[in-house]
Amino acid sequence: MLSAVGLLDPEQEQVLKAMEPKLREVYGVEGGWLDVVAAQMQFPDSLPLRIKAIWEAGVESAGRQGLSVNANDFAVAFVDANFQPRS
């Protein structure tokens, strides 16, 4: 989520990039860490743009109300609202 809105911490991104070879090996998916996650979660290709649009609309709406939006809170709320645990 944070990557989709351009707010992933650079240090965290470096950690994820360093994990890419092992992620590719374990999951049998070519590409970077985002590709592996997208394949495992069966995300549509359009998801990052949809997340970014929702984020931007929320930031704009909050700004009109004199509020701010915390990116981490947004990510948690987005996942909670859109992804159910697999059973």
How much strand content do the residues show? under 5%
H/E order of the elements? HHHH
Gross morphology is globular
Number of helices: 4
Structural class: mainly alpha
Rounded to an integer, what's the Rg over CA atoms? 15 Å
Enumerate the spans where pLDDT stays under 50 for 5 or more consecutive residues: none
Could you walk me through the main structural features you see in this protein, from its secondary elements to its overall organization?
By secondary structure, this protein is mainly alpha-helical. The chain has helices at residues 10-27, 33-41, 47-64, 71-82. The model has no long low-confidence stretch (mean pLDDT 94).
Give a short synopsis of this structure.
With 87 residues, the chain is mainly alpha-helical.
Keywords:
4 helices; single chain; 87 residues; mainly alpha
Task: Walk me through the topology.
Layout: H1 10-27, H2 33-41, H3 47-64, H4 71-82
